[in-house]
Amino acid sequence: METKINIEARECGAENDPPTIPKRRQELLKWNGWGYSDSKFIVNKDKHVEFTGERYQLSGHTMPQLRDWMMNTIGINLDHRTPAQPSFTAADTPTPIKNESFIMDMRRTGISLSDDCQDRLFRAHGHTLHEIFVLREGRFDRIPDLVIWPTCHNDVVKIVELACRHNVVIIPFGGGTSVSSALECPANETRMIVSLDTSQMNKILWVDDKNMTAHCEAGIIGQDLERWLAKKGFCTGHEPDSMEFSSLGGWVATRASGMKKNIYGNIEDLIVHIKFVTPLGVMEKNCQVPRISSGPDIHHFMMGSEGILGVVTEVTMKIRPLPECKKYGSIVFPDFESGVKCLREIAKQRCAPASIRLMDNEQFQFGHALKPESGTIFSSFVDGLKKFYITKIKGFDPHTLAVATLLFEGKKQEVAAMEKRVYEIASKFGGLAAGAENGERGYMLTFVIAYLRDLGFDYYIVAESFETSVPWDRCLELCKNVKDRLHRECKERGIQFPPYITCRVTQTYDAGACVYFYFGFNYRGISNPVQVYEDIENCAREEILANGGSISHHHGVGKIRKRYLRQTVGDVGLGTLRAIKEYLDPHNIFGANNCMVGDPEDDRKVHNVPKKAFPQSKL
Amino acid sequence: MKSLIFRGRLFLTGLHTYRFTAAVLTRCERTNRSHGEQHDCCPQTSLTGGTLEFDPRALIYFSRSSRLLHTSATTPKMSEQSRNSWIKKDDPKLVSAKQKDFFVDMLDDRRHASDFHYSTRVRDVTTYKYNKPRSPKDIKDHVMQSDRVKYAVEKVMEESGLPLEEVMKQTQAILDEMAHNLRIGVIRCFAFFLVKVMKKLFQRIYINEEGVQKVRSLLKEYPILLMPSHRSYLDFLLMSYVFYEFDLPLPVIAAAMDFMGMRFFGWLLRNSGAFYIRRSFGDDMLYWAVFTEYIQTQICNGDSPVEFFVEGTRSRTSKSYAPKFGMLSAALEPYFKAQVPDIMIVPVSISYDKILEEKLYAYELLGVPKPKESASGLFKARNILKEDFGNVHIYLGEPVSIRQYSVTGNLDRSVHSLAPRYIVSLSDQEQHLIRHLSYDMVIQQQKHMVISPFAMIAAVLLQNREGIHLRNLVREVEWLKRQSSNLGAYIDWPVSETPETVLRASVSHHGNIVQITADDMVELIVEDPTITSNQDKLMTSGAQQLMLCLYKNQLMHIFVDVAMIAISINSCAQDTLHIEELKKHYKFLERLLNIDFIFLPGNTDKDFEQAMLVLTHTCGVVVENSHVQIRKSTNKYTTFFSQMFDPFLLGYWIMCRCLKSMQTGAHGKPLAKPPKVITKEAQNLSATLLRMGAFKHMEVLSLDMMNNGLQSLYHMGAVQKDKREGNTYMYPNEVVLSQIMDELSKFVDVPNIPATSINVETKTVVINAKL
Ligand SMILES: Cc1cc2nc3c(=O)[nH]c(=O)nc-3n(C[C@H](O)[C@H](O)[C@H](O)COP(=O)(O)OP(=O)(O)OC[C@H]3O[C@@H](n4cnc5c(N)ncnc54)[C@H](O)[C@@H]3O)c2cc1C
């Protein structure tokens, strides 16, 4: 079948502020871990855990309890280290496959490109456990052969046109925070692979305060978007935990969800218009309306397309005035169950604050271990908490209690009213208000945990998070059963140390909730930790599905959850999705093979960590 | 038992090389301490026609090697024993009776300590890790407020138009009738009383302690289902007793309604954890909802281990009854609907030397009205407490995780995600799995049943109904014992005694059924001396024989597979029989015996192969070029095995014969009758034929056998069913029926009665033998 290309190219607009993350990401970011190079957890000379840098509240502080927590909960031994391989050199990267005629045509367009091995490596992966582990211990069999930085919609049109003409694979790259292996290059791809890095398409093209919308290029990252809008007194309110690095296009392509969705909505609620470049041409609607009945919504092919149908280039998003007041809060419950019941009730009464999350006891303990040394901004809180324990929580068992963290936003009176209502409901479920700092620290935990994982890697720990959505009536049992399954699978596989398993309810909806798990274990004595981890996570996913949970709430399918897609949408559903792909991209130019494309088993061998056969689950 | 994995190539008969599989070996290995000398008496002693070419050395070889692994359990030979000072009693024949193989006697300690102390001691029980402590009242409240019950109440209101209060009242009544009221105070009294009774009734109560430990370690992790075999009322008392003794949480027990009627006893049981389930509640929605919720909430919260009898009711025949699925489905549903991480199912085998209700059962089987069960009936009648019921063996089997069990089935539990859990029902796949599991559990129960010497005496005696000399009996029983243990049975045989002593003791223990005459003839007591009234002689002596059958039946499951092959070999008129033909017969017989015996669904081919292996390796069956050599293979083994099952085939034939003569109605279709009526008529026919002396197997008087035959015939399409005004009616399908009868008469000698001459309508069947 011949592809008809009828893409019209236009000139690009003027330059804007440069993006916070530079083109050469390696100058600012870690090459084999999470986040900024200057920020990391280290064990300092006093053998205490310290967070370096100056960016975050925790930066420059030591956390005196964290070391013991790590030693006691997950069996870290400071003498047993597993440092990462020193660096990745050109020799470690596979030689690029070059489609010379494509490169020649590309050069003629004047669009910036690079085949530098560092540039390529940086765009070869997201942040799943196995990707990071490959960076630390192994090497990729396949990485992009070329990186291209379009600066506007028209650049993208040109690139797609040329790629189609020369049969070159495109993998769009936003912020690189994918946690579904969506960015990984299929190992068996023999064509040239281009990473289309949208980071230079980072302009806010216009802001419309009549309709309260902003029109932005898709490569803008969360922190820039919010910072720049704030200057004008607006925000989108979309705050995924990865917002420092993830991009608007990435959010659309993965159906992302932000922490404050209760007020602002998830990405699908925030989108008014999307411009989408496919091999067949540009797909977009002709109007920017709040709602439309025009048959199945084409936005829904773009959202969650995971880079396999085309490139999101521009997006019109809803904006809101900056909130007047922002307030943290927390509630302590005697146990997780009463917490879930309370969240359910709050959802039922539709009075959830901007964010409400319920941490189980393990996570609460973990949060505790993150307390910095006294004499810091947190000291008052620590004392307060202690007192709080002795007086109010007496009767609460510190080994069963659960904590909800809250974030209120809005006008002052609104916030006050909302607080009152939420705490009232909480008290019906045995919940006690436990202070703002406690809440704030809860949110901090979710930001630092990605950094903390890198420290774990140095000490025989493999860890990862996964999430799901579930109807309310199955929420509790899902948490319980998944944890039980994880414990059991660990035991079954001879993992010698107690694994760390914890969950929280991170979002509430009318009909259900989003549940987020952390799972990690000490792999001393195990020869293939990543494989073991993945096998166990798959068991957990099976358990989730059996418990009425979903394939994913917001991380997406990518490659690692492909095997559950058929079960999720059925044969007809899968066929329909495949038909869309077949129509839009018959030559598989957007060839990352995510989601519905290809057989789940095809892309398994993407990384090259020494592997040993490990028994499949018997449970 | 240690698994002795050991594959050897052995040269048995002449030119045939056989591969011994581990399965067969494990069986050899199971020859426990009780048959130290078994290999000294070779099967040659009892060969028929000298056709058997079997080298017993093969067996000896294996027994020896396994014995070495079992030095602790076997009696050491003098020469092997060192004579140093740590040996306290230098008597190789001394065997601890408290400790026996993997069994330990629970009563032993109780006989040496105060019962009061025992019943008041501190019990430190483990509980399920997700358990939230609840009282029986809390559980009931939960049920009343549950979604499931609310949903059912609404439905019933819609359908019946009754007001809410009325339906709630009904619901409460159902629940009150059902619910247990487990209370530790009552338990303690009960324990006090129970241990006294147990000590009176039994010499020893053996339990495999390892099984107890397994249950203990699982209790914390997962909800537990206990599935004991059901041969006696005492089963659940014994179970509770075990759990009390070992400081385990007391089980709650699904009991049949019959008990509830007993005043004190009913109360006592309810307060010690029994809950009452109606035998059948069809499509009574309220009852279903209450029942399901009641069971499931206790499983989900792991309040107590839940105990029920998968056979549904006490087996009156000592054979396992075909499993019922309802209770197990309800109990396992929480796993399929992901309300619990897993559920552990523990099969339990309870074997009695002598069954408390033996006589009661015999009359029930004959159809003499069952006396209403009352506490006094149970414990006072016949001075039961003065009688000796020997030993009980309780074996807690390997717990089965439903999660692991369903892995192979590739079940997708997410199918239940599309409706609230209290509405959706189990998928076909899940039901299929539960069916399979139920059978599996019954087979597990059977596997760990302990065979008493009397079972073998009974089996031999039933093939020598005129009596047998003690000397011959010893020989025959020893032979049978060897066959049984080769097939994996555990036999309770005191190794320190001579076989003759064992048999004498055993016979006198069952002095109401068998006796030894002055000249050492062992025979069945044909007339029950305690019966004075002028009852039907046939029935009273039938009862005696049925009691004997009760014990013989302990053995049947061990032999059924090999027997189904032996039957076709023994009845074969040609010189050779092709394996495939044999397998066809086997399948036919399996379908026919499918209610009376337990076969794992879908396992027929494997069972057949296994049985063939046994027959060719240890029972002298000769196969050449896929053909069984009939002359060579017809021997003592095949004869004995097939004769064991003659009564069943004969019984089924009688059932067929009876169906055949059912009168044709106006439209040329046989008049349908309720199954009960048909079985009764078939029994009448049996009685007539017995009176005529057509055969001697009085087991065919059993209504149970007749009913099972009828059900089998129904499953095979020889009988059809109608529902009329809610009741089942049956009528024959002539074509299929005739085919089955023809087949049957190939396998067993049947009386020659002309087809048209039976009138089953009249109470007593008249046979006009015109020929
Ligand atoms: C620590 C951490 C916290 C996270 N927290 C959240 C959270 O709270 N909520 C949430 O929803 N997710 C979260 N994620 C997941 C991740 O941040 C999201 O999936 C995010 O939307 C990815 O955006 P990105 O720009 O980094 O996309 P990338 O990782 O670069 O790409 C993701 C996928 O989208 C495609 N893609 C990217 N840009 C485009 C484009 N312009 N056009 C077409 N396809 C494109 C890529 O090809 C790829 O398939 C988190 C991840 C991490 C590591």
From TrEMBL, chain A:
One term of GO molecular function: FAD binding
PROSITE patterns attached to this UniProt entry: FAD_PCMH (PS51387)
Keywords for this protein: FAD, Flavoprotein, Lipid biosynthesis, Lipid metabolism, Peroxisome, Transferase
GO cellular component, one term: peroxisome
Site positions (Important for enzyme activity): 357
Active site, renumbered: 516 (proton donor/acceptor)
UniProt pathway: Lipid metabolism; Glycerolipid metabolism; ether lipid biosynthesis
Subunit structure: Homodimer.
Protein name: Alkylglycerone-phosphate synthase
Organism from which the protein derives: Potamilus streckersoni
TrEMBL record, chain B:
InterPro entries the record matches: GPAT/DHAPAT, GPAT/DHAPAT_C, GPAT/DHAPAT_LPLAT, Plipid/glycerol_acylTrfase
Keyword Acyltransferase: yes
GO molecular function: glycerol-3-phosphate O-acyltransferase activity; glycerone-phosphate O-acyltransferase activity
UniProt KW S-adenosyl-L-methionine keyword: no
Membrane topology value: Peripheral membrane protein
Alphabetized SMART domains for the sequence: PlsC
Keywords from the named record: Acyltransferase, Membrane, Transferase
Subcellular location: Endomembrane system
Annotated Phospholipid/glycerol acyltransferase domain residues: 224-353
GO biological process, one term: phospholipid biosynthetic process
Superkingdom classification of source: Eukaryota
GO cellular component: endomembrane system; mitochondrial membrane; peroxisomal membrane
Stored SUPFAM superfamilies: Glycerol-3-phosphate (1)-acyltransferase
Matching Pfam families: Acyltransferase, GPAT_C
Record's protein name: Phospholipid/glycerol acyltransferase domain-containing protein
Species assigned in the record: Potamilus streckersoni
